[in-house]
Amino acid sequence: MPKQLRAAVIGLGIGRPNGRAIAANPRGCIVALCDLIEPKMDEFEKELGHPVKKFTDYRKMLREKDIDAVFVGTPNQLHIEMALAVIKAGKHVMVTKPLGHAVAPAIKLVAAAEKSGLVNMMSLSARFSPECQHVANLIRDGRFGRIYYAKARSMRRSGIPDWNLGFIEAGGGAFRDMGVHCLDAAWWLMGMPRPISVTGVAGAEFGPRGSGFWDFRCPPKSFYGRYASDDYAGGFIRFEGNIGMQVESFWASHQPEDFQVELMGTKAGGRVFPTPILYGTEHGAPHDTIVKLPKALPEQWNAIAGHFIDCCLDGVKCQAPLRHGMMVQQMMEALLRSAKTGREERL
Length: 347
Fold this sequence. Notes:
The chain has helices at residues 15-24, 38-48, 58-61, 76-88, 103-116, 130-140, 174-189, 221-224, 300-314, 322-341; strands spanning 5-10, 28-34, 53-55, 69-72, 92-96, 120-123, 147-155, 195-203, 232-239, 243-250, 258-265, 269-271, 277-282, 285-290, 345-346. By secondary structure, the protein is α/β, with parallel strands linked by helices.
């Protein structure tokens, strides 16, 4: 195994922060880029400061023998197809959230990835954030006791993406785009309990009318007229052990912007973002503890890249495998199905 991981990036949207972090790691190097828009690759190549191979067809890129690992950062609907091709080419793979656009192909991908023996990982910026990692350490130390309930939400005022149709067409939507972040972070902090049932509501109240788009912009009707997913979703997930989670995600709303995970434990409760706060009772009096995290802690993209590189080069056990992404996908799709049927979905 080489001392430096030679990585490629497919999709130069979310691929940029992930690619930057891999390149910034002394044991990582970006050797190839793939995007349909060639100027994007030229621009990122200049930022990297060294020549890279550039492709508009990921299948051709995967034939290159000097690529050890690939980051997949395309629209949801293409994740599984591309990740399967990466695995088939014998390369380690990291996929941006969500794992895909549906459960059945996600299961197929996870089975292939685990059978291959290659490193397979989700890039999860909320889970790997300094705030989430610190709270996870406190939970492992027993500070919270047993966590029995959580609330997770992602709230935007006017934040429907207007730069790629994949976001708003079938298989996209607010819940798969932003709800996945708070859902995954809360579920992971709770110890990843097994889901039993989900009930939810979802719809699109802003996007199909051409409102609620990013920074209050109004895209042409040729764009928003193809809206075929949710711009809000919310619901309740029941887990084994009488554990529950309330989750909601809004791309657009008449509410202040917010991203939060709240935890209720038998010894303490807390909020994770943007500054962790612990709520407890000491000697009969309430104690609220604000955690001031050092600025020297690695930010999420560097933490993700560092862990992926350690997994690939050193055989470290992956803390965010594609299987986790598949389980979160199952919960998301169950909530969206419940919204359509009006019934509770059993898992």
